[in-house]
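Throughout our pipeline, every protein is held as a single compact record rather than as scattered files. Such a record has a labelled line for the sequence and another for the backbone structure tokens. This encoding replaces a full spatial description with a residue-level series of whole-number codes. For reference, a complete record is included directly beneath this paragraph.
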Amino acid sequence: MNRSVSILIASVLTISVTAAGDIGKEELASTSRLKNTMRKFATGLDQIQKGIIYNNRDRIEMGVRVMRQAKKNFLKRHGEILKKQMPDNPQLAYSLAKKSAEQIKKYVKMMNSQIHNTDDFSKIATAYSGVFDQCVKCHQKLRKNYLKAQP
């Protein structure tokens, strides 16, 4: 009887550890996908900035395209992992990301509409600054809380 109980306990522990490992792998994969999306945003911003500085419309267009692709279904794809960035208030994390995503969408749309309207890229530069500002605001709030929650 004692041996049977020991085997049962060992089996339960093995299954629990395996399940916990799978949950960790899933969260790691979600985090990795989020980082990949953030890299795309950064690449798009970089291309837009270079296009503005070098007066290169094609670079701006490429950056806007990358930004539009990266923001597609952003919250649907990354909402759950974003909520984990603020374990004390996951809805606030989601709300911050949603507000930033809406603002970024507005600025990207503004840049897209201005690319061919003029050779003066000052409005695109203003929209670029707006996107960058949204990124900084969201990152500072989410990362600050995420770092506090780490052991």
About this structure: Residues 34-149 form a domain with the Four Helix Bundle (Hemerythrin (Met), subunit A) fold (CATH 1.20.120).
